[in-house]
Fold each of these.
Amino acid sequence: MISDFLSLDTLKIVEPLSYEQNKELLLGLFTAISPDAVLYESSDEMVLLEAVAYAMTYKDEMLNARMRAILPTLTQGQNLDDSAKNFYGATRLESESDDAFLQRSFALLQQSVTTGSDDSYIGHTKGVDVRIGDVFPYRSGPGEVTVVWHSYSETDVAELDTIQSNIETVLFDAKRRPLCATSQNVVRATVVSFDVHVKLSIYSALQRESLVDKAASAIRAFFKQHSISREVNLSKITALAHLEGVDKVTVLNPSTNVAIGKEEVAVLGTVTIETEEVQDV
């Protein structure tokens, strides 16, 4: 019985109209009520009408999503693949476990409810390829959204180009296009490389090797998957290297905070740690 229920292609309480269909419907009602009135794209009346059209579509999608959210989840393997595809629009990634796939499917369901949200862009983009490590969507202009992505994996240029093309295919699909965006751009983050050089003032030379290893490991771990558009902050580097047994941390490089643009990602190069022993006064 459950398997028959899960094999349904769709489950809808209402048949939602698209944003364009709702807008056309509202325009028709407006014209019928005020046949002599003229609506301009930039007018307050048109902006209000478009907002109502979006809300109508959102409401219908919300009702259907709530229904899909209560579906049985005790499936695995191919049955999970089929139900996740039918109800959540999710396709299993290579080597993805049942639990991870089910969690991502639920995430896609939540994202579909908030069409055009940052979570929506992030979820759909990360679903393209397991090598996509970070996604940063931002509003780059009126009605325009730019989605910036970065792969933390060692991937050659040809494969990165393929990932870029696949993301565009997913995000530009008419069924997935956010209602509030008239233009979308997909950009691979530009790498901004930087090296770190710090000097540790330590209490005991006996701890030198251990402190150097721990400080370098802490810095590398923190910057291993640094977020797109996030600056390189000297105070953070200082905090990472200020371990027990260290009296003072001096960051020699970079000399100032490294500003990172919206379409850039900071990638750590070399880490150099030097030490000096604190002299008794």
Amino acid sequence: MTMLSLRQIRRILLMLLPLMLAMPVGLGVLLLRAAAHTGNGEAWAVAWMLAFVVGLPVTLVALAIAGAMQGHARVSRIVPFTGGKIPEVGQ
């Protein structure tokens, strides 16, 4: 049995991420449909509850992904392209 590297684990989780995000959203849609059949007041109450129970975790994951992508872009910008000069080095 071989151990998975951190990069392999991240790739596996990245492939599973859409499924993990779609499940709570799908359940939320089912709950909202069921509440809409019972009445307007219940539908609004369920919609507010879903905004926090489903919306906040999905937003946190999306912000974490955006932050990681921005951090990766920032790190790659520090190193100049081949043949480029680093300003104020050795002066």
Amino acid sequence: MLRLPGLLAQNRFGGSLLHRTHRTLGRELKSIRTGEVALTSFAFGLIQGKYKKDGGLTLLLPVDLLTGIVAHGAALFTDQYASHLHAIGDGALASFFTTTGYRVGERWQAGGSIWHSLGGMFGDTKEPAGGSTIADKELASLVRAG
């Protein structure tokens, strides 16, 4: 049985037409993927910026990390939308790791080693519950009382 792709592939003009069409569609799909990644990352940047004073929006995990994991997981179960889900997952993970890297960099710049800065990677670390923190408070109350 004769089929159109087989006929076009045998013809020099048709073969090159198919190759050019494939290359053009491939470029357009990469542009769509890039747009999906960039817009997803931007959207999560907006969300995390809005909730910055609360340490970012979280639902057990930071919402961008959670979305990235779920989107990539869901992409494993579909063929039709897998490329879009992977792009959304990549954008969400890019947002998470950019925000996390920025926070670690802030801590590192404030003083200390990079390893200490990595320790508070998933949020602000609490003040130590003993040692100099209590001594400073006691000293301040003694100065006021004296």
Amino acid sequence: MTVDGPYTCKYCGRTFKSLQSLKSHLQNCPKRSLPREFSKGKVTFICYMNPRRKVVNAVNSLLRKPDFNEQQLLGVVRYLQENGEVHRILMPEINKN
């Protein structure tokens, strides 16, 4: 059984003629963004981004390195935002611990 279009994004409501177009859209749909928390030292960034396992795993891998610092985390977060991976960033929180 196949379902013919139109296909609608359940997050933002946009309509697409093909299923492939919908799948492509879902990778960058800003309404689908989920909060991801990245912390290092006393700084925590909350980034709203679409679920991308490879990107999140890469950042978490960097965070586990002992010589990776808060300034480098800021650079990574800015890089992700410039490349469209992160849709919105909440101001960094300073951990009191």
